[in-house]
Amino acid sequence: MRHITYLCLAAAGIAALSGCEKDIDVAEMERKFQGVNVVDESDLNDVMLTVGDPNESVAYFQRASASDPSRIDLTRGLALSLVRAKRVSEGSVAWAKVVAHPDSTSEDRVNLADALIRSNDWAKAESVLNAVPPTYETFKRYRLEAMIADGNEDWNKADSFYEIAVGLTTKPASVLNNWGYSKLTRGDYSEAERLFSDAIRQDTTLFTAKNNLVLARGAQGNYTLPVVPMTQIERAELLHSMGLAAIKRGDVELGKGLLREAVDTHPRHFDAASRALDALEDA
Predict the structure, then answer these.
(1) Is the pLDDT of residue 38 over 50?
(2) How many CB atoms lie within 10 A of CB 175?
(3) What average pLDDT score do residues 250-264 get?
(4) 3-state SS string over the chain?
């Protein structure tokens, strides 16, 4: 009899729960779960933008944006992934689609300009940047503006934009290196040397700035290596660059000596320096 009572109570409980379920708003539940899924998907999108293989990120966003082409966040993720995968021509097309979206931002236009510069379409990049409101002031925007001004040989604008860009970032090494290279191409070697030194102080691992610094010194007839942090391989490569700079200035014997030192310094066989030295000896 006790077992029958328990069975009855259980049946009554199930019936009560069934009655409660009928009162739940199914549409509301679906809406709540949909919101959770959007949050989870947003997290996944962020993860896919930083995965080790950028082509995996491209494949993910291609599938996602194809299933819902109206979503600007998915097209934006695809554009970012394509540029990260060095597929800049495709990236430019994707960024153009983002910019054409009614919800696009000034940042999207700057990213389109960046992709266009990477694909060597400087004129179009300049046109895109000109459409960005002057009130939108970011490091990336002014770095690109400086590069375009450099290409147009508008040195006053270039210097102004480089200076603004340096002030808008806590990591100015790369833009200081670009600014220094601009000065180097103009023949302002002492100013280029200063900017390359500043870049190295900001980032002691930036080898391009070290190499450019050597070129700036060599162009002034200064063939001593700068006192900057360097590995043994970097030292050999910098000696090689300085040797070539000396030869370019007509100091051939000095240059040959620097090339020999580069070969001796390198921990392995330094083919480039050896070939340059052999060519000079044969001549």
Answers:
(1) no
(2) 26
(3) 95
(4) CHHHHHHHHHHHHHHHHHHHHHHCCHHHHHHHHHHHHHHHHHHHHHHHCCCCCHHHHHHHHHHHHHHCCCCHHHHHHHHHHHHHCCCHHHHHHHHHHHHHCCCCCHHHHHHHHHHHHHCCCHHHHHHHHHCCCCCCCCHHHHHHHHHHHHHCCCHHHHHHHHHHHHHCCCCCHHHHHHHHHHHHHHCCHHHHHHHHHHHHHHCCCCHHHHHHHHHHHHHCCCCCCCCCCCCHHHHHHHHHHHHHHHHHCCCHHHHHHHHHHHHHHCCCCCHHHHHHHHHHHHC
- What domains are there in the chain, each with its CATH number? 51-116 (1.25.40.10)
Q: What is the pLDDT of residues 119-129, one digit of tens each?
A: 999 999 999 99
- Each residue of 50-74: pLDDT tens digit? 776 889 999 999 999 999 999 999 9
Q: Per-residue pLDDT tens for 94-137?
A: 999 999 999 999 999 999 999 999 999 999 999 999 999 999 99
Query: CB of 150 within 8 A of CB of 158?
Result: yes
b vs e for 113-138, b when ≥16 Cβ sit within 10 Å of the residue's Cβ? bbbbbebebeeebbebbeebeeeeee
CA distances from 112 to 44, 88, 140, 146, 232 (A): 24, 10, 12, 16, 40
